[in-house]
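So, could you explain this one?
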Amino acid sequence: MIRYRLEGGVNPLKLKRLVIGNPPTGASAQFSKSRIGAFDLPLRNPNNQAQMDIYEEIVKLRQEGRRGAVATIVNVRGSIPSFKTAKMLVRDDGSIVGTIGGGCVEAEVWQAAREVMESEKPRTLTFNLNQDPKYDAGLVCGGTLDIFLEPVLPPASLYVFGAGHVAASLYRTARDAGFDVSVIDDRETYANRERFPEAKEVIAEDFNRAMESISPNESSYIVIVTRGHRDDMRVLRWAVQTQARYVGMIGSKRKTIAIFRELTKEGLSPQLFERVHAPVGLDIGAVTPEEIAVSITAELIAVRRHAERALPHMSWFKAHPPSEEPTGSDFTDAAEAREESE
C-alpha cells in the first residue's frame, strides 16, 4: 500500500514537497529513505486564477458567437516583465482579459490580435527588448520573448433547409467536419430526431415561421436543398439578406438564373447574390446524394478555411457578376445540375 504525506503543513495550496512511501510499522516509526520518494512541487502560481478566467471567457465568447484571440508567451530568453505561459485574451470589441506584461509589447500584440481575428489564422511574434529602443520604458528587462497568437472562433453553424436524401447525407459529412448542423423542413416525417439524431436543432414547421426564429451571424452557413423551386426561392430571398458567411442553393444553372431574375425583379439588389453558391458545391462530378454531400461539405470547408487557390466551383455566380444580365445562351447551354427527388 502506498500512502501520501504532506510536508510543510496540510494546506495543499502551500504544498512544497510531496513524500510517497509505505506506512510506518509502529507508532514512532519514521519513513526510511530507502522506502520513500520525495518530489519537489512547484509553488502555486498567483496568476493561475487569471489564467482560469481567460479560459472561462473563451468559452463564454464562443457560446455568444463572438470572436477573440489568445496571446501566449511561449518562449523566453533573458529577463522580461512577465513569465513564460502568461496569457492575454483580446475580445472582438477590443477589451482584454489577463496580461503579458503591459507596455509597448502588449500594445503591439493587441493590434496583431485584431488581425488574427480577421484572418482567422495563428501567428508568432518575436520581441527583442534589449535591441529595440521603443521597448525601453525604464524597466530592467533586456530579454527576448516569443508570443503565439491564435484565433478564438465561434462554432460554425450550418443551417440546412430541406430534410431529404441530400440533406441527410450533408448532415453527416458536415457534422464530421466540425459544423453544428441544424435541419429545417416543413415535413415532420422528414425533419425528426430519428433521421437527424445528433443535429444541434431539428425544426419541423413552415419555412417562413422557421426563418423568423433564426438569426444567422458571420459564422453561419446556409445550404438550401428543399424539395421545390418555390421553397428554394423564398429561403434564398431571406438568406441573402442575413449576415451568414455562406449561402448555397442546390439546383441547375437554369433554375439558378430563373430565381435570380425573379428576386431582382422584386427589388433585391443584384449585389446581394455575390456570395451565393448556386449550383452549390465543388465540381467533382458528384451524382449520388452521398457524393453531393461531400462536394458541398468541401466547399463549406474551403470558405471556412479561407482557401487561397482557385477551386472548381460550379456556382453560376462565380462565372457571371450578379449585375450581369443573363443571356439566352446561359439557358440553352447550361447543363442540368443535381437536385433532390422528393
Remarks:
- The longest strand covers residues 68-77.
- The chain has three domains: 3-40, 48-152, 157-333.
- Residues 3-40 form one domain.
